[in-house]
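just leaving the lab so this will be short. what follows is a protein written twice so to speak, once as letters and once as structure tokens for the fold. can you read through it and tell me how you think this chain folds. thanks a lot i owe you, the record is right below.

___
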Amino acid sequence: MIVQACLNGARTPDYHPALPLTPDAMAADALACIRAGAAEFHIHPRGPDLAESLAAVDATIAAVRTACPGSLVGVSTGAWIEGDAAGTRAAISAWSELPDHASVNLSEPDAPAVMELLSKMGVGIEAGLATVADAGRFVSLTSHHKVLRILIEIEEQALPEALAVADGIASVLARAGVRRPILLHGIDDTAWDFVREARRRTWSTRIGLEDCRHMPDGSPAPGNAALVEAAVAIYRQG
């Protein structure tokens, strides 16, 4: 089990004053998160205009690796970043500073092609499953056993419904005999519920300003390192 730090996501600059949006800011934040107990990172690189950009992966990965040598660094490949499938694949193909892993959302039409490209490049794949349909699509892929891990990513905000979706995804994976590591997380209102649920199931989790800006007690989070420290404390409970 690990706690992954998700530093920024698609959040806008006004979401939180400590949201890291430049390579240097992400590198400094990553180091603070490692010191707080994070095992690795999930990052959405940003271009000079601070918008998400797959073309910004090289500079961001280089900066984070300089600050945190030996730590795994992952990025998003969300279809919305480049806006079309061909542009996404072209941007990924142009990477020279390869991330250790990249997340691929199985809800996106081009997901299998993106996964095949990443695999050929030697980049680990985090398969993102947000629905039971995503899980069914994932297990239908002949290469599903080759992914680095599975992300069960719950977007529902009402906890009973969110837990039901997580259970449904887990059931599909179990019936298919999937044995890959699982990382479970929620977002906003359910973020801390799913940190606790992941620990209960002995799965990995993630936390950071991509997923929420509040501490477990509901107070405002100072930043990513404080969120990571709180999640690690939950995982260390006896």
Observations:
- The CA atoms of residues 132 and 169 lie 5 Å apart.
- The mean pLDDT is 97.
- The radius of gyration is 17 Å.
- The first strand starts at residue 3 and ends at 6.
